[in-house]
Amino acid sequence: MANRIQAIRGVSDILPERSPAWRELEQVLIDVLDSYGYQEIRLPIMEKTEVFARAIGEHTDIVSKEMYSFADRNDDSITLRPEGTAGCVRAGLQHGLFHNQTQRLWYLGPMFRHERPQKGRYRQFHQIGVEAYGMAGPDIDAELILLCQRLWRQLGLDGLQLELNSLGSTESRAAYREVLVDYFGQHRDQLDDDSRRRLEHNPLRILDSKNPDMQALIADAPALADHLDDESRAHFAGLCELLTAAGIDYVINPRLVRGLDYYNHTVFEWTTDQLGAQATVCAGGRYDRLIEQVGGPPTPAIGFAIGLERLLELLGLDPGPRQPHVYIVTGEGAAARALQLADQLRDALPGLRVMSHCGGGSLKSQFKRADRNGALLALILADDELASDRVTVKPLRGQGEQHSVAQAAAADTVKELLAAAALPETDSTPQ
Ligand code: ATP
Ligand code: MG
């Protein structure tokens, strides 16, 4: 037998039995974002490679080794988006969204990174990203964190921990960088290969190393907090005050530096102890200098992204498939009337899911199909029914006896039977 083609490693199909869970999760997220006045922006999945290279930084993990980049037929370098912020900034600049105005935006969709696939880490994964532009104070930082907190609450999640840090202004971050290069440079012999590479281009990331042999060295490194300038300190203290006033618990993690070059001031992550190594569900921070750096007006900015696969794993949402309420069993020659009756029911009962049998076969095999699809009622249209303008109603889940009604009364009968049946909550009864 020929080898069957498989999906790319780390790239998943979301099958019909899981898609209701995704939809339910997305709806909760969107409703919360709506309630804060955030607006959706739909961004392209591919961009010119420079969009990411310039914004995220050449020496980050993402740009240096994780991007799906290719030359298109014109030999332009194109990249499948590894994250949403860079494209959002590109779009905002292109359409003048940053001129003398504030923006509160969100987007949702697949991202692509060439990483080693494992639980919670995939090559195509989904993020919902939230970005706020034009607001410099810690109040918007706090708003985003409160928004996250509300999301967790709406989803019934507790036990997520908020970790916070400040990277300081670009100036204090640069000054700290020097101090750090100096310190790690003096202990070059204790650095692993990764860290030696980072020392040159991205020394803050050494603090982020997971290598146990490096932990003692890292623990003794000069702390960023001791190198913040007054403005940076005031911003961070302001945020901490707002969070405390809102009753939000947080932990200050001085080693939280985040992988992307563009962050300054506030950075944060929401983590869990229930997902093993892939513990971060949501991550973000401020990036006040990015827009200017890629050629736009100076625009304060902050955002975060949630990894939806990790969130779903944590939630274990299982609303089950969306089974039809009604399955129309169709005798020979009844196809036209069956399609009509199905539409008549959909018109009369918004929200009703009606499947009409296609593909012929015996009535018995059609009942089997109805049952396998999880339908609650079968409506039968065969010779007798066609001749008498009636339809036979057969409850499939113990809602009474089979009986016959006039076709014109079918919608009323369906409505009554469904109202009487105790339907699961996720499977809303049509109004
Ligand atoms: P990590 O340290 O886990 O690689 P990151 O810093 O690269 O994370 P971000 O770019 O901040 O991650 O992305 C935000 C969120 O998106 C992460 O917290 C995570 O929930 C999710 N995420 C990132 N990369 C992946 C991936 N390859 N597969 C699944 N989810 C991911
Ligand atoms: Mg990563």
Automatic annotation (TrEMBL):
Pfam families: HGTP_anticodon, tRNA-synt_His
Domain of life where this protein originates: Bacteria
SUPFAM superfamilies on file: Class II aaRS ABD-related, Class II aaRS and biotin synthetases
Enzyme Commission no: 6.1.1.21
UniProt entry tagged with the keyword Signal: no
Keyword set, alphabetical order: Aminoacyl-tRNA synthetase, ATP-binding, Cytoplasm, Ligase, Nucleotide-binding, Protein biosynthesis
Domain Aminoacyl-transfer RNA synthetases class-II family profile: 1-324
One GO-annotated biological process of the protein: histidyl-tRNA aminoacylation
GO cellular component, as recorded: cytoplasm
Catalytic activity, as annotated: tRNA(His) + L-histidine + ATP = L-histidyl-tRNA(His) + AMP + diphosphate + H(+)
Residues that coordinate or bind L-histidine: E83, G84, T85, R113, Q127, E131, R258, Y262, Y263
Subunit structure: Homodimer.
NCBIfam families (alphabetical): hisS
Name recorded for this polypeptide: Histidine--tRNA ligase
Organism annotation: Methylohalomonas lacus
